[in-house]
Amino acid sequence: MTTTEGRQPVTAHTPATRVLVLNSGSSSVKYQLLEMRDGSRLAAGLVERIGEETSRLVHTPLAEGLGGKRERTGRIDDHAAALEAVAEELARDGLGLDSPDLAAIGHRVVHGGLKFSEPTVVDDAVLKEIERLVPVAPLHNPANLTGIRTARELRPDLPQVAVFDTAFHTTMPEHAARYAIDTATADAHRIRRYGFHGTSHAYVSRKTAELLGKDPSEVNVIVLHLGNGASASAVEGGRCVDTSMGLTPLEGLVMGTRSGDIDPAVTFHLKRVAGMSVDEIDELLNKKSGLVGLCGDNDMREIRRRVDEGDERAALAFDIYIHRLKKYIGAYTAVLGRVDAVVFTAGVGENAAPVREAAVAGLESLGLAVDAERNTVRSDEPRIISPESARTVVAVVPTDEELEIARQTFALVGEDRTVDA
Predict the structure, then answer these.
(1) Catalytic residue check, 165
(2) pTM of the full structure
(3) Which pLDDT does position 97 carry in this prediction?
């Protein structure tokens, strides 16, 4: 791999203060390079459609003095080739993977089971355990493993750190994490509620405490992570005590293409009466349900446009989406007992003012309200959107999963990474 272009001179015991964050999907790699001294981004990009003739890499230098966005198209055979291409683009900006400033590579891993409750330096044993969890995360963990293995081959000398989506939720008490099914069967097949979007819930709950001027240990927060995938969490004093997703990301809120909560007997009914196979039911509930199943759209902007034009299907889909949100806000208020803030985040949560307004409407008895003017403000900064008189704060806190992964990675290995001249 030729990534020496732009190498910076090394002085004795130069601290390595940069982290490359990789999020490897089945046919894509998202990446960001961050400087951990100030949390700034030096570069970001996406490789998509890996293995196809129409592969595309979009690279955006973000450090001052570097050029603008660059794009390359053409077949990229596999993840190894994708990361080679990423390394080349970074090297063009003087930020190559062989830079002495690079302290570690942090990897998003969706499922860590119960074993991984903290960020973990990857070795062969860790890889085996992530692979053992593939049956409970068949769409995600294999791709995450591919990214880690490829990065290890490219930089075998560099710490590779796995940061798990499920880790933040491992603090759930057993009465919240257990399903009410036969214990022996559940234990034999690792059936329990794991939760997902953990890096987002961890980041947002901590930033909410900062917004309130308090320590996380003093604050109870309901976090609503609303994107195409959506999840809620009840965070008590900085620790997750309940979350809406379960064994898989299918449970919980209505999502873009996922049904969320549903009577389990629906699956038996579809098999017995409709003659659908297990795979067909899986595809129905994960890819053809939720908002897209209800009204044909999973883009909240388009749904709201249709609602405003009087479209009844879109209006019903929106109402079902909001009804589920209200149920979880109410349920998690009961779980926490005292709620200091209800916080919206992710694509829909951060940008869809009508969703925030509707989700809180009618919950005044819980101390919740939204100020119409504050709610319509667009900003990249954390902000309170409830009126001063509200008993419970309603806020919008933009999530930053990449920064959270980088921070956890650097906290684990960064202080030990120096380069001798």
Answers:
(1) yes
(2) 0.89
(3) 87
